[in-house]
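Table 4 source record.
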Amino acid sequence: MKIPDYHVHPDFSFDARGSIRDYAQAAVAKGLEEICFTTHLDLDPVRAPREGWVKVNGAKMPNTDPGWVKSYLEEIEEAQELFSKAPLRIKAGLEVDYFPEVEVLLEPFLSFPWDFLLASVHCINHLAVAGEKEGAQLLSVMSPAQVAREFADQAKRAIVSGFFNGLAHLDYFKRLRRPGFKEKFLNALKPYLEEILVLLKEKRMALEINTRGITKYGLREPFPGPDIISLAVSLGLEVITLGSDSHNPYELAQDFGEGVSLATKAGLNKVYTFKGGKIERAFPITEVDPIYAPYPA
C-alpha cells in the first residue's frame, strides 16, 4: 500500500497543468491507490486579477461563481468511475487560501459534497509572502517577527472556524529567499506553534506533511520541518496527511519516501484519509510501501 497524496492541483487551478484524468493515469502508473484533488480557491478580492479564477475546459472563469464546481465534481466523478477497477480511490477537495474575510465568501461553496477541505495561509496583508517581489514588499513594512505573528493568527483562525479538515504547509513562508529570513521567521514562529498544534489535535484536523519543499524549493525538508513534526508528536497530535502539492502529474507523490522517513523518525505511525469531511481511516505507516514508480515529466 502506498500513502495517498492529499494535495493535488489539476488544471482547474490557475497555476497547474494536467487534467483530472491525466493525474489519475499518473497515480495508477506510480502505484498509488488514493489521491485527493485540492484545486486552489483564492477568494481575496484584492488578488482577484491575478488569482481569482479557475480554468474550466481551458477557459478562465471567476472562482467566486460556484458554478464551476459542478464541472469540477463531474470530472472527478467520471474519473472515479473510469479508474475504479485500477483500483484508485479519488477524493474531491479544495485548498482554500485563508484570510480574515474569507469565511463569508466561502459560504456558497460549503454545500458541495467535499471529502477534504485544506486550509492554507499564503498571504499577509494581501501579499504573497513566499513570492520574491511581494515578499520583499511586505518585509519593507513588517519584520519577520510580525510576519510570524500574523501568520500564526490566521492559521489559528482557520482552525477554529470549523470549515476545514487539514492545515497545509505550516511553515511555508520559510521558502522565501531573503537573507536571514528563514531563520528569523522560524524562531519568531516558535512561541505560537504549540497553540496551533494543540488546536489541530483538539479539532481532529490533519497536519499536512507537504513534501514540495524537499526538492522543488531546494530546502531539503518538508513543510513543516522535522522539529515541528517532532513537537506535534510530543503534544499527542496523530492525524496527518501527506501532500506533494503537485501542479503537474509527474510531481505526484514526489519525495514521499523522504516524507515517510521523517514522519516515522518523529514518532508518527499512522496516516489518515478523509471522506465526506470526516476521517475515513487510518493505517500504520509500517504497512505502507514508500517507494513510488517514476512517471515521465
